[in-house]
Design a protein that fits this description.
310 residues; alpha/beta; D-Maltodextrin-Binding Protein, domain 2; five-stranded mixed sheet
């Protein structure tokens, strides 16, 4: 059995929804497709598909193989592109993930120029506020905020991000200005999260050590934009990236507080699997973003916004 060919057939069967549809798409005979699926099941010693008269369904083992096979086949495709890069321009689909707000405001505006430079490439930008599984979800490049855990991912640093605490001047006039992180227990706090409950904000305590402050929030929203709007209206105190509210602070709509207790800046990286290292399209995209961010410093205390947006 040609295992790679059989996996490609298996993936096509799953995505087509039936053996006959996969046979037409490949193209191949129905008998050949059926034999390859059977050979895979015998090779792995497990059932991969549940066949009924109306449809096919994946078993748990079948789902595992499908996810892994898609990634393996994509890597083979990248190898093919890498080896032929001297003779052809980078082409194909590039899958990128980023946190929702940063992706929408800082990545998406740069894509038009990238696509103009590389007309044979297309980009699939996935905006999600979670760490994606780059293998199972077939992601080529991901934007990650925070210190990276030990992993086999390749990382390129883009910038540093500063988290600050702020509130509307009207709220602070009514409730007072917190002088220390512990004072937040007496205030209305607005928290970014998908799951309401207890939250923790980290600060720099006296002596330079980090401390965790338990926050009993009055408002939970899974959108930083919405949290900032609520803070502007005087709903309470919010902790957000500085770059997001820099203009509002300059205009006096929000006031920065507890600045002396802010933690050190958090790194922002582009990460990608080692298998993508030789991919021309991955290298092009990573180099492009690193170059644009180096020139514009969008996360800096005073980013040159005009230059970045051009």
């Amino acid at each position: 059995m040609d295992q790679i060919a059989a996996m490609a057939t298996f993936v096509r069967v799953v995505e087509s929804g039936s053996l006959s549809a996969a046979a037409r798409a490949l193209p191949s005979s129905l008998t050949s497709v059926s034999r390859q699926i059977t050979a895979l099941e015998q090779h792995y010693g497990t059932q991969l598909l549940v066949r009924t008269t109306r449809r096919l369904a994946l078993t748990d083992d079948g789902r595992l193989l499908y996810d892994r096979a898609k990634s393996i086949l994509a890597e083979f495709k990248d190898i093919e592109l890498s080896l032929s890069s001297r003779h052809r321009k980078p082409a194909g689909r590039l899958r990128v993930s980023a946190p929702t707000l940063m992706g929408r405001l800082l990545i998406a505006p740069l894509l038009a120029e990238f696509l103009r430079r590389h007309p044979a490439l297309s980009v699939d930008l996935m905006l999600v506020d979670r760490a994606v599984d780059m293998v199972e979800e077939d992601i080529h490049v991901a934007l990650r905020v925070g210190h990276l855990p030990d992993s086999q991912l390749v990382a390129r640093k883009l910038a540093d991000l500063t988290m600050i605490v702020c509130a509307a001047p009207d709220y602070l006039h009514r409730r007072g200005v917190p002088q220390a992180p512990d004072d937040l227990s007496k205030h209305d706090c607005l928290v970014f999260s998908d799951a309401p409950g207890a939250a923790e904000w980290r600060f720099k305590a006296n002596g330079g050590k980090d401390c965790k402050i338990r926050i009993a929030a009055r408002l939970w929203i899974n959108s930083l934009d919405a949290l900032v709007l609520a803070a502007e209206e005087g709903a309470g105190i919010v902790r957000v990236p500085f770059w997001q509210v820099a203009a509002k602070i300059a205009a006096g709509r929000l006031q920065r507080i507890l600045a002396a207790h802010e933690r050190a800046a958090t790194p922002v990286h582009l990460v990608f699997p080692p298998s993508r290292l030789g991919s021309p399209k991955t290298r092009l995209f990573v180099d492009y973003l690193v170059d644009r961010w180096a020139g514009s410093r969008p996360l800096a205390e005073h980013p040159p916004a005009a230059e970045f947006n051009n």
